[in-house]
Amino acid sequence: xxxxxxxxxxxxxxxxxxxxxxxxxxxxxxxxxxxxxxxxxxxxxxxxxxxxxxxxxxxxxxxxxxxxxxxxxxxxxxxxxxxxxxxxxxxxxxxxxxxxxxxxxxxxxxxxxxxxxxxxxxxxxxxxxxxxxxxxxxxxxxxxxxxxxxxxxxxxxxxxxxxxxxxxxxxxxxxxxxxxxxxxxxxxxxxxxxxxxxxxxxxxxxxxxxxxxxxxxxxxxxxxxxxxxxxxxxxxxxxxxxxxxxxxxxxxxxxxxxxxxxxxxxxxxxxxxxxxxxxxxxxxxxxxxxxxxxxxxxxxxxxxxxxxxxxxxxxxxxxxxxxxxxxxxxxxxxxxxxxxxxxxxxxxxxxxxxxxxxxxxxxxxxxxxxxxxxxxxxxxxxxxxxxxxxxxxxxxxxxx
Length: 400
Known about the structure:
- 43% of the residues lie in helices and 16% in strands.
- By secondary structure, it is an alpha/beta fold.
- The strands form three sheets. The chain has a four-stranded mixed β-sheet with strand order 2-3-1-6, covered by helices on one side.
- The radius of gyration is 27 Å and the shape is globular.
- About 6% of the residues have low confidence.
């Protein structure tokens, strides 16, 4: 994409509202907000499609928003049982925020959304931004304007990649009936209130104003959906040409005064016990939702030095034996040496439990991890694949 699809008036509105938000929350919070990405470093907790999973997620997002002192209650609502905050059953949202009562944030999540882990993360990021605005008394009376300002707040808090992606998600897949490939399916989902181009521009504004660091810029681009990635990069180019330095427009002091951004991996999330008062699964809850699984993390690792020396000894003895048997040609020696050094150069498999707190070695016939005693639900090659694998496992257990 060559240009960001926004009129100059729209870009100016986003810049002005961002400046007002920075003035309200303090420039230090703006420059210190952690970059939260949809990866294991930002979300190390295992995802479970239930109230406990939503609560763990909300507590983590609150900690990232510098509201770790607050606790969380979660209600999971569905069509057969309306929310206590919407007795008429007219609520048609993915998630909601219903206020803060004696230090406890009240959140709700639609049951039919729980198997879209990425969508739940984005929806809860938006609702945590509502909690942030309530806690700091930033809300405005105009509901439509408040929702757009909440979208901007998600970006200021570091959640911008999550909510910008959710502003427009395209998915395509094959439809399979039994063993027969039946066709193709395409879906388009939208969350949030600002259009995806406006979210992409504001995300670029946030990153550009904070220094436009190259490694972070690449990480953001790689994490964004295809359309948003193009708009984000185009917006950075527009900002570089038209502004150069946004500090004055946003009310930021000289960068020499800035504290370092908070490292998302170093933010401690307080352990808080679950209780019936804080969790409401609704009438459709099932005990099996609490099951946690792990995966076989399979990696190729090189032979250790002692093993190499042993193999080298075997190769030399094999070569000597081949020469003794076939004195007229050296082909036996050559074949043995080639085979031996191929074995030396090869890697071996090393299987371990994917759970971050376990990492126990696994044997090929293990169905349950001997370390953490969790069911082994499959095999992955990298830790970064764990969240998607857990999502697929949950979806297979509870298909829509």
